[in-house]
Design a protein that fits this description.
Chain lengths: 504, 352
């Protein structure tokens, strides 16, 4: 067999596997995401020597500026937002490979110039570079850009691969997501599409897979026989900042539940995949989404914050935040109770909540086990035996904690809960890379494991859409909570008897 | 950046007293600040000459996030008969609400007479159930031998041996007893990655079987890094290398490949002031070649195709520096490289 067909024998044992030479195009190259996240991520990948051995970057945006002006902007962004101080020589060399194409996304001449530039890169190198189009624009432009790429023959490239990364939100309702998928997949194959949810690029989220499937001790109890209930929390102590324009059209349910929190839910509930290849993992996640029972609107809570205190300072109500319309009905807090109706999880309530401007920043999954069947211990004078609780914390202190009952020292047999705690930071030397670094590399490599597939995003919307529909009709009504609190009282009504929210 | 957590020192002390002092300092630290947790990644035992103690400590300070959780530095002083010890607890800077990581640093001043039984001194001081890594940059093989049964990993830098043959022999001997992380090997990592990348596109991969020449330029003291690089190519591509001979200050030889012999050349580059490789060039029987050289912002790549057409570009990447190499060595101690042993075996054939 020829060497070319056998695979590359030199990659054995290498941590960083080769990536085919790539030309990356950022649509929305002057936007906030490009400046804060994408350009610094690309620099850090370059710094570590992990970019493809040949790499070019083209930014496309409306501002009518020259290549050098864009390079200066990119330098400034990288110097400001990179997680490490840039090495001037690496930065200079990276910027030498940057080009800028000005124009609007519906302008055919933009794609003609883009095509010319991409061909020029190929010609100079004598190879067909892979092409990665990163759509970092307002969602309304996603179908426009993909359509134009198809019209101008940029969706295919001979021996090179063409891939497109599409930012979130992927639609704002189910119908919109379906239509967007239809438009995108009329130009590109699903294997070329990388719907990004940067949450999946976080080490902490990927650790969920390691935690569940690399530790045999949890599997026997990971089911309805031992688990009493689950709660998933994604709480923010901050308000909406300067994002009123985006946030008021989105709200907590779309901003966090439809994507990030459902991702956590699927990783928590999925069956072990046959392999950790993209489709095997995503098949299992989609099965979980399909198993979620339609959510009764009465099992949801929507709320927004009123003025309160945060970090000892007075903070305004949501309606008083800059840019929020006075007649806004947008929720800054969402809570729901749902059920994954399958063999493993049937009957276990899964509570989810997310909120802005609550008491503390925390993202965690808490799994409460059923209580022991018989208590022979004294309960008088002690907190008593509490059900074991396993808490997987994603932020701020990534770790795992298990509450256990332990004897209080003394002559009497009294029990109180104690914590067995593991913090990832105490056991690993490496600093986690930024989520965007991991995901950009994966997209260049064509590994879609950490991206959302078409049927997955549709299944997410099928869970969320009926809730949005009910909410749009005022059911349940929007309630309020004080900024800096744990959220609205109404969230407690979602809980079954004996269940309680963990403190935020 | 770290905060001082507490210091203890005692002259003419014992391992038992040191162990008690560590526990006492940790208890005091927890009493002062509950929001801290001990880092439990690995123990690093370092054996150094007393006069280089400060330099090695500085080098370890610069490894950034790859600090060992417990460092036991044994400074060997000629003529010393007693053990003096200093224990320092440090807490890594942390954001409010996040726990600070506690690390422990133990510095022992001891004499050559202690080295043969060094394990009995160090054993009570290592944290059990986490990996122990031993590094002895100034020789002291008797200390390493004594610590072998405590160590899961031995950190070596083969370029520290004057003779490449002796370096390869020593690494091979140690590899029988523990997992070896060789900094000389890690110095070649970016080069190996880039060569693997170059030949990764299918149209280039076929050329791997046609490689007929390899030239490696290295800093004058880093011939062994070049040997390991050639050993890696030989192991991965199925070459059987013969002994290299010295001529004109370089090492020359041949490896028997599946299709043709491959000429090997290791050439010192006197302009290179830092350890490691300066450049590699691979040629193929079909007239193609690829050269990689250190350059600003990464490696300068130069490729010539069969028709003689050349193209040049920069493979981006920042230099890791010596602190970065050491940090990488500590990180690699918790991983397992499946290729080093085979590369070392082929390198052994070249110096045999």
């Amino acid at each position: 067999m020829a060497v070319a067909e056998r695979g590359n024998p030199l990659v054995e044992g290498l941590e960083r596997l080769p990536i085919h030479p790539t030309s990356m195009v950022i649509f929305g190259g002057t936007g906030d995401l490009a400046h804060r996240k994408l350009l610094p991520a690309i620099y850090n990948i370059a710094h570590e020597g992990a970019l493809p051995e040949r790499f070019n970057l083209i930014a496309v945006s409306r501002s009518d500026i020259a290549h050098d002006d864009y390079r200066a902007m990119a330098r400034e962004s990288i110097e400001k937002y990179s997680r490490r101080t840039p090495d001037p020589q690496v930065l200079n060399k990276l910027l030498e490979q940057v080009r800028y194409v000005p124009g609007t996304f519906d302008d055919d001449s933009v794609y003609e110039r883009l095509d010319e530039q991409l061909k020029e890169f190929d010609k100079e190198a004598g190879i067909a570079f892979n092409r990665l189009f990163y759509l970092s624009t307002a969602p309304t432009f996603f179908p426009v850009i993909v359509g134009k790429l198809g019209d101008h023959g940029l969706s295919r490239h001979g021996e090179g691969e063409v891939r497109a990364v599409i930012e979130k939100p992927f639609g704002t309702r189910l119908a919109e997501a379906l239509e967007l998928n239809r438009q995108v997949l009329s130009v590109l194959d699903e294997s070329q599409v990388f719907r990004i949810d940067h949450y999946l690029g976080k080490e902490t989220v990927q650790n969920m897979l390691a935690f569940r499937f690399a530790n045999g001790m949890f599997e026997p109890i990971w089911n309805r026989n031992y688990i009493d209930y689950v709660q998933i929390t994604a709480a923010e102590d901050l308000g909406i900042g300067s994002r009123a324009g985006y946030y008021d059209t989105s709200g907590a349910l779309r901003d966090l539940v439809q994507n990030h929190m459902l991702q956590l839910l699927t990783l928590l509930c999925m069956e072990p995949p046959v392999t950790f290849t993209a489709d095997d993992v995503r098949d299992e996640k989609v099965k979980v989404l399909h198993s979620i029972k339609p959510v009764d609107p009465d099992c949801t809570v929507r709320a927004r914050y009123t003025a309160g205190m945060a970090e000892g300072k007075e903070v305004p109500a949501y309606l008083e935040e800059e840019g929020v319309p006075q007649d806004s009905q947008t929720e800054t807090y969402a809570a729901l109770r749902l059920e994954v109706d399958n063999w493993r999880w049937a009957g276990i309530p899964i509570y989810m909540r997310t909120g802005k401007r609550v008491a503390r920043k925390v993202t965690e999954i808490a799994i409460t086990l059923k209580p022991v069947p018989h208590l022979a211990f004294e309960s008088e004078g002690s907190i008593g035996v509490q059900p074991n609780q396993l808490v997987l914390t994603m932020q701020p202190n990534e770790g795992v904690a298990l509450s256990l009952g332990a004897k209080i020292p003394g002559t009497r047999m009294r029990i109180r809960p104690v914590n067995m705690e593991f913090l990832y930071g105490t056991a690993f030397l490496s600093q986690s890379p930024e989520a965007y670094e991991r995901l950009i590399l994966d997209a260049m490599r064509g590994d879609a494991t950490l991206f959302t597939r078409d049927d997955e995003v549709e299944a997410q919307w099928r869970v969320i859409d009926p809730i949005l529909e009910a909410w749009s009709k005022g059911s349940p009504p929007l309630v309020e909570y004080t900024a800096g609190s744990a959220g609205p009282e109404e969230a407690n009504k979602l809980l079954e008897p004996g269940h309680r929210w963990r403190a935020i | 950046m770290t905060d001082a957590g507490g210091i203890w020192s005692e002259a003419n002390t014992t391992p038992g007293a040191i162990d008690s002092a560590i526990r006492q300092l940790l208890q005091e630290q927890y009493a002062r600040d509950e929001a801290c947790a001990p880092a439990r990644v690995l123990n690093l035992v370092v054996v150094v000459d007393r006069e280089w103690r400060g330099e090695v400590l500085n080098r370890l300070e610069r490894v950034g996030r790859y600090h060992p959780s417990r460092l036991i530095l044994c400074a060997v002083e000629e003529g010393r008969t007693t053990i003096d010890a200093t224990v320092a607890i440090t807490i890594e800077d942390h954001a409010p609400g996040e726990p600070g990581l506690v690390r422990e640093r133990i510095v022992l001043d001891l004499g050559p007479r202690h080295l043969e039984g060094l394990d009995t001194i160090v054993d009570p001081l290592v944290v059990t159930d986490i990996a122990t890594v031993t590094w002895s940059p100034h020789g002291h093989p008797e200390a390493v031998d004594a610590l072998l049964h405590l160590s899961q990993v031995i950190l070596v830098d083969s370029i520290n041996e004057f003779d490449p043959g002796a370096a390869v022999d020593r690494a091979r001997d140690l590899a029988q007893e523990a997992y070896i992380v060789d900094l000389a090997w890690l110095r070649s990592t970016p080069w190996r990655e880039r060569v693997a990348s170059t030949f990764d596109p299918p149209q280039w991969r076929e050329e791997l079987g046609r490689i007929d020449s390899v030239t490696v330029r290295h800093s004058p003291q880093s011939a062994v890094a070049g040997l390991l690089f050639c050993g890696w190519l030989a192991a991965r591509l199925g070459w059987e290398p013969g002994s290299l001979l010295s001529a004109d200050g370089s090492l020359h030889g041949k490896a028997h490949g599946r299709r043709q012999d491959v000429s090997l050349k290791l050439e010192p580059d006197p302009t290179m002031s830092v350890p490691g490789l300066a450049g590699v060039e691979l040629g193929t029987a079909g007239g193609m070649s690829i050269a990689l050289d250190r350059g600003p912002g990464g490696l300068t790549a130069r490729r010539r195709d069969r028709k003689g057409k050349e193209s040049t570009w920069t493979v981006l990447g920042a230099s890791r520096g010596e602190a970065g190499i050491l940090g990488e060595g500590i990180r690699q101690a918790l991983l397992r490289d499946p290729v080093y042993a085979a590369a070392l075996g082929r390198a052994e054939a070249m110096v045999g």
